[in-house]
């Protein structure tokens, strides 16, 4: 987990320069990103908001190493993703970035503990014992007493907390959250957003959250507004 002194100005942990992404559908080219520039400092909770088709999900996929850019520079955790290739992007996903999605993507036949262990196994880390820092995260998430339950025995909010724990099990430098409250009711949405803010404020976890929900976006330090493949505005939430 990365921590920082708020008075310092470290180099951006995510740096994007003139990023473009073009998808080819038959003879038709669709420009999903059209010259995006963005810096995310270490320890920031950044919300990226925009309607469907704005390019926010494409940006998420490129920063997370799930798809390569068409052109431009993308630096994540010190790696230039525009030149590393498939193996480099795979390594980034194993060691540097944790993912939380709208769908919890928990394996239904496994307990919460074993779902979390899958992330450790994929990263090549020991799976038998959770370290103390991660145990503290489980306490913060409020699921330390639910580790032996299967997804069917949990509420949607609890399942998303397990998904967040799984994403953080390898102590990634960056947590990427794609519509993390999309499958939750208002009460559980509030609880999950509050937990994300607590992870950021108490532990210094860098978070980049994609959302179409303006209210959810208010939980970040900064809000980037996207439309038609470009950033159209950057704002600060009220009271932050």
What does this structure look like?
The structure is a single chain. The protein is α/β, with parallel strands linked by helices and 240 residues long. It has a single domain (12-235), classed as P-loop containing nucleotide triphosphate hydrolases (Rossmann fold). The chain has helices spanning 56-63, 85-95, 112-123, 132-141, 156-168, 186-203, 214-217; strands spanning 12-25, 28-41, 45-49, 71-76, 79-80, 97-100, 174-178, 206-211, 222-227, 230-235. The strands form two sheets. It has a six-stranded mixed beta sheet with strand order 6-7-8-3-9-10, with helices on both faces. A hairpin with a 2-residue loop joins strand 1 (12-25) and strand 2. Helix 3 (112-123) packs parallel to helix 5 and helix 5 runs parallel beside helix 6.
Summarize the structure.
The protein has about 240 residues and is α/β, with parallel strands linked by helices. The protein has seven helices and ten strands.
């Amino acid at each position: 987990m990365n921590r920082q002194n708020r008075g310092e100005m470290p180099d951006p942990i995510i740096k994007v320069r003139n990023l473009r992404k073009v998808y080819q559908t038959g003879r038709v080219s669709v420009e999903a990103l059209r010259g995006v520039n963005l810096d995310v400092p270490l320890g920031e909770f950044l919300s990226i908001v925009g309607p469907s088709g704005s390019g926010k999900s494409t940006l998420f996929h490129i920063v997370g190493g799930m798809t390569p850019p068409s052109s431009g520079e993308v630096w994540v955790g010190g790696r230039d993703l525009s030149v590393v290739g498939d193996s480099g992007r795979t390594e980034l996903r194993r060691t540097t970035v944790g993912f939380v999605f709208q769908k919890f993507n928990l394996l239904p036949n496994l307990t919460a503990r074993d779902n979390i262990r899958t992330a450790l196994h994929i990263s090549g880390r020991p799976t038998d014992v959770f370290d103390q820092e991660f145990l503290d995260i489980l306490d913060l998430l409020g699921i330390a007493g639910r580790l032996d339950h299967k997804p069917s025995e949990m509420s949607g909010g609890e399942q998303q907390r397990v998904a967040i724990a799984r994403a953080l099990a390898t102590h990634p430098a960056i947590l990427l959250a794609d519509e993390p409250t999309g499958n939750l009711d208002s009460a559980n949405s509030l609880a999950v957003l509050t937990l994300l803010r607590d992870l950021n404020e108490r532990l210094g976890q860098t978070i980049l959250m994609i959302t179409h929900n303006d209210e959810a976006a208010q939980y970040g330090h900064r809000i980037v507004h996207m439309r038609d493949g470009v950033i159209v505005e950057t704002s600060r939430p009220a009271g932050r």
